[in-house]
Amino acid sequence: MDMNVRNGLICLIIVAILTACVPNVAIASMGNYSISHYNKALNPGDHIPTVRGSTSNGILNWKYATKGIVTSSATPNGILYVGSNDHNVYALNAANGTKVWNYATGSLVWSKPAIANGIVYIGSMDNNVYALNATTGTKIWSYATGEGVFSSPTVSNGVVYVGSDDHNVYALNANTGTKVWGYETGGNVSSCPTVANGSDIKNCL
Protein backbone atom coordinates (compact mmCIF):
# COMPACT_ATOMS: atom_id res chain seq x y z
CA MET A 1 0.00 0.00 0.00
CA ASP A 2 1.21 3.50 -0.85
CA MET A 3 2.70 5.40 2.12
CA ASN A 4 0.40 8.40 1.65
CA VAL A 5 -2.64 6.12 1.70
CA ARG A 6 -1.39 4.45 4.87
CA ASN A 7 -0.75 7.79 6.54
CA GLY A 8 -4.26 8.83 5.59
CA LEU A 9 -5.62 5.66 7.18
CA ILE A 10 -3.73 6.46 10.38
CA CYS A 11 -5.29 9.92 10.38
CA LEU A 12 -8.78 8.45 9.85
CA ILE A 13 -8.28 6.00 12.70
CA ILE A 14 -7.15 8.83 14.98
CA VAL A 15 -10.18 10.95 14.10
CA ALA A 16 -12.47 7.97 14.71
CA ILE A 17 -10.96 7.48 18.15
CA LEU A 18 -11.39 11.16 18.97
CA THR A 19 -15.12 11.06 18.26
CA ALA A 20 -15.67 8.53 21.02
CA CYS A 21 -16.95 9.87 24.34
CA VAL A 22 -13.95 9.28 26.55
CA PRO A 23 -12.79 11.32 29.58
CA ASN A 24 -9.22 11.71 28.32
CA VAL A 25 -7.98 11.87 24.76
CA ALA A 26 -4.53 11.12 23.42
CA ILE A 27 -4.02 12.73 20.03
CA ALA A 28 -1.44 11.54 17.54
CA SER A 29 -0.50 14.51 15.39
CA MET A 30 0.95 13.88 11.95
CA GLY A 31 1.80 17.56 11.56
CA ASN A 32 4.42 17.89 14.25
CA TYR A 33 5.04 14.24 15.08
CA SER A 34 3.85 14.45 18.66
CA ILE A 35 1.50 12.84 21.11
CA SER A 36 -0.75 15.40 22.77
CA HIS A 37 -3.02 14.72 25.73
CA TYR A 38 -6.20 16.68 26.41
CA ASN A 39 -8.36 16.64 29.52
CA LYS A 40 -11.63 16.70 27.57
CA ALA A 41 -13.03 14.66 24.72
CA LEU A 42 -13.38 16.46 21.42
CA ASN A 43 -16.75 16.84 19.73
CA PRO A 44 -17.32 14.76 16.57
CA GLY A 45 -17.58 17.93 14.46
CA ASP A 46 -14.31 19.51 15.58
CA HIS A 47 -11.74 20.24 12.88
CA ILE A 48 -8.21 19.08 13.76
CA PRO A 49 -5.69 20.11 11.09
CA THR A 50 -2.74 19.73 13.49
CA VAL A 51 -2.28 19.68 17.23
CA ARG A 52 -0.04 22.50 18.38
CA GLY A 53 -1.69 23.94 21.47
CA SER A 54 -5.33 23.87 22.46
CA THR A 55 -8.69 23.42 20.76
CA SER A 56 -12.01 25.14 21.32
CA ASN A 57 -13.06 22.77 24.08
CA GLY A 58 -9.87 21.02 25.22
CA ILE A 59 -6.90 22.16 27.29
CA LEU A 60 -3.50 20.79 26.38
CA ASN A 61 -1.96 19.04 29.37
CA TRP A 62 1.30 17.91 27.81
CA LYS A 63 3.01 17.08 24.53
CA TYR A 64 5.74 14.55 23.83
CA ALA A 65 7.67 14.79 20.55
CA THR A 66 9.10 11.82 18.65
CA LYS A 67 10.94 11.92 15.32
CA GLY A 68 8.18 10.37 13.23
CA ILE A 69 4.45 9.93 12.73
CA VAL A 70 2.82 8.30 15.75
CA THR A 71 -0.01 5.88 16.59
CA SER A 72 -1.24 5.34 20.13
CA SER A 73 -3.05 2.87 22.34
CA ALA A 74 -5.51 3.25 25.16
CA THR A 75 -4.08 4.10 28.59
CA PRO A 76 -4.22 1.00 30.80
CA ASN A 77 -2.80 1.56 34.29
CA GLY A 78 -2.08 5.19 33.46
CA ILE A 79 0.45 4.41 30.71
CA LEU A 80 0.10 5.41 27.05
CA TYR A 81 1.84 3.09 24.58
CA VAL A 82 2.94 4.67 21.30
CA GLY A 83 4.46 3.46 18.05
CA SER A 84 6.46 5.94 15.95
CA ASN A 85 8.00 6.15 12.51
CA ASP A 86 11.28 6.88 14.25
CA HIS A 87 11.35 3.04 14.70
CA ASN A 88 10.54 3.17 18.43
CA VAL A 89 7.79 1.97 20.70
CA TYR A 90 7.26 4.35 23.65
CA ALA A 91 5.58 4.05 27.03
CA LEU A 92 4.54 7.46 28.38
CA ASN A 93 3.02 8.48 31.69
CA ALA A 94 -0.53 9.43 30.69
CA ALA A 95 -0.79 12.09 33.39
CA ASN A 96 2.31 14.16 32.54
CA GLY A 97 3.86 12.78 29.34
CA THR A 98 7.07 11.59 30.97
CA LYS A 99 8.79 8.78 29.09
CA VAL A 100 8.74 5.51 31.03
CA TRP A 101 10.68 3.51 28.44
CA ASN A 102 11.27 3.08 24.72
CA TYR A 103 12.15 0.07 22.61
CA ALA A 104 13.90 0.45 19.24
CA THR A 105 12.72 -1.79 16.40
CA GLY A 106 14.43 -2.05 13.04
CA SER A 107 12.03 0.10 11.00
CA LEU A 108 8.88 2.25 10.96
CA VAL A 109 6.17 1.40 13.50
CA TRP A 110 2.74 2.03 11.95
CA SER A 111 1.05 -0.69 13.96
CA LYS A 112 -1.13 0.28 16.93
CA PRO A 113 -0.09 -1.36 20.22
CA ALA A 114 -2.31 -3.98 21.86
CA ILE A 115 -1.96 -4.55 25.60
CA ALA A 116 -2.98 -7.72 27.41
CA ASN A 117 -1.84 -9.31 30.68
CA GLY A 118 1.07 -6.94 31.15
CA ILE A 119 2.43 -7.37 27.62
CA VAL A 120 2.50 -4.88 24.73
CA TYR A 121 2.08 -6.45 21.29
CA ILE A 122 3.00 -4.43 18.21
CA GLY A 123 4.19 -4.87 14.64
CA SER A 124 7.05 -3.13 12.84
CA MET A 125 7.93 -2.65 9.20
CA ASP A 126 11.13 -4.57 10.00
CA ASN A 127 8.88 -7.65 9.41
CA ASN A 128 8.53 -8.52 13.10
CA VAL A 129 5.75 -8.78 15.63
CA TYR A 130 7.03 -7.86 19.10
CA ALA A 131 5.89 -8.74 22.61
CA LEU A 132 7.29 -6.28 25.16
CA ASN A 133 7.02 -6.18 28.93
CA ALA A 134 4.51 -3.38 29.57
CA THR A 135 6.32 -2.21 32.69
CA THR A 136 9.96 -2.28 31.57
CA GLY A 137 9.89 -2.43 27.76
CA THR A 138 12.04 -5.59 27.76
CA LYS A 139 11.48 -7.81 24.74
CA ILE A 140 9.75 -11.05 25.65
CA TRP A 141 9.67 -12.45 22.14
CA SER A 142 9.55 -11.47 18.48
CA TYR A 143 8.13 -13.31 15.49
CA ALA A 144 9.52 -12.71 12.01
CA THR A 145 7.07 -12.59 9.12
CA GLY A 146 8.07 -12.37 5.47
CA GLU A 147 7.36 -8.63 5.05
CA GLY A 148 6.51 -5.53 7.05
CA VAL A 149 3.76 -5.58 9.68
CA PHE A 150 1.45 -2.57 9.26
CA SER A 151 -1.46 -4.47 10.80
CA SER A 152 -2.38 -3.88 14.45
CA PRO A 153 -2.60 -7.01 16.62
CA THR A 154 -5.70 -8.29 18.38
CA VAL A 155 -5.30 -10.46 21.47
CA SER A 156 -7.93 -12.99 22.49
CA ASN A 157 -7.79 -16.09 24.71
CA GLY A 158 -4.01 -16.24 24.78
CA VAL A 159 -3.56 -15.81 21.02
CA VAL A 160 -2.24 -12.80 19.08
CA TYR A 161 -3.89 -12.30 15.67
CA VAL A 162 -2.09 -10.05 13.20
CA GLY A 163 -1.67 -9.53 9.45
CA SER A 164 1.50 -8.99 7.43
CA ASP A 165 2.46 -7.52 4.08
CA ASP A 166 3.66 -11.03 3.20
CA HIS A 167 -0.07 -11.70 2.48
CA ASN A 168 -0.57 -13.85 5.59
CA VAL A 169 -2.75 -13.68 8.67
CA TYR A 170 -0.99 -15.13 11.71
CA ALA A 171 -2.16 -16.58 15.00
CA LEU A 172 0.66 -16.55 17.55
CA ASN A 173 0.87 -17.88 21.09
CA ALA A 174 0.67 -14.74 23.24
CA ASN A 175 3.17 -16.04 25.81
CA THR A 176 5.83 -17.58 23.57
CA GLY A 177 5.33 -16.15 20.07
CA THR A 178 5.06 -19.65 18.59
CA LYS A 179 2.96 -19.77 15.43
CA VAL A 180 -0.37 -21.48 16.01
CA TRP A 181 -1.42 -21.14 12.38
CA GLY A 182 -1.07 -18.94 9.31
CA TYR A 183 -3.46 -18.26 6.42
CA GLU A 184 -2.28 -16.89 3.09
CA THR A 185 -4.46 -14.30 1.37
CA GLY A 186 -4.08 -12.72 -2.05
CA GLY A 187 -2.45 -9.46 -0.98
CA ASN A 188 -1.05 -7.34 1.84
CA VAL A 189 -2.93 -7.70 5.12
CA SER A 190 -2.96 -4.24 6.69
CA SER A 191 -6.29 -4.44 8.49
CA CYS A 192 -6.89 -5.08 12.18
CA PRO A 193 -8.22 -8.60 12.88
CA THR A 194 -11.56 -8.93 14.64
CA VAL A 195 -12.11 -12.02 16.80
CA ALA A 196 -15.70 -12.97 17.62
CA ASN A 197 -16.91 -15.65 20.02
CA GLY A 198 -20.65 -15.21 20.26
CA SER A 199 -21.24 -11.79 21.78
CA ASP A 200 -17.59 -11.44 22.82
CA ILE A 201 -16.00 -9.37 20.04
CA LYS A 202 -12.42 -8.15 20.20
CA ASN A 203 -10.40 -6.00 17.82
CA CYS A 204 -7.60 -3.44 17.92
CA LEU A 205 -9.83 -0.35 18.31
Question: What report would you give on this structure?
Answer:
This protein has 205 residues and is mainly beta. The chain has a single domain (3-202), classed as YVTN repeat-like/Quinoprotein amine dehydrogenase (Methylamine Dehydrogenase, Chain H). The chain is 8% helix and 40% strand. It contains 1 helix and 17 strands. It has a 4-stranded antiparallel sheet with strand order 4-5-6-7, with no helix packed on it. A 4-stranded antiparallel sheet has the order 8-9-10-11, with no helix packed on it. β13 and β14 form a beta hairpin. The model is unreliable at 4-33 and 38-57 (pLDDT under 50).
Short description:
By secondary structure, the protein is mainly β.
What labels would you give this structure?
1 helix, mainly beta, 8% helix, 4-stranded antiparallel sheet, Methylamine Dehydrogenase, Chain H, 205 residues
Residues in β-strands, percent? 35-45%
Order of helices and strands: HEEEEEEEEEEEEEEEEE
CATH architecture annotation name:
7 Propeller
Number of strands: 17
Percent range of helical residues? under 10%
Question: What is the CATH superfamily classification?
Answer: YVTN repeat-like/Quinoprotein amine dehydrogenase
Instruction: Write down the CATH class.
Output: Mainly Beta
As for the number of domains, it is 1
- The largest sheet has its strands arranged as 4-5-6-7
Mean pLDDT: 76
Taken from the alpha-carbon principal axes, the silhouette is globular
Structural class: mainly beta
Radius of gyration: 16 Å
CATH topology value: Methylamine Dehydrogenase, Chain H
Counting DSSP H or I runs of 4 or more residues, the number of helices is: 1
- Tell me the span between the first and last alpha carbons: 21 Å
User: Main β-sheet, in a few words?
Assistant: 4 strands, antiparallel
**Residue ranges: pLDDT <50 for 5 or more in a row?**
4-33, 38-57
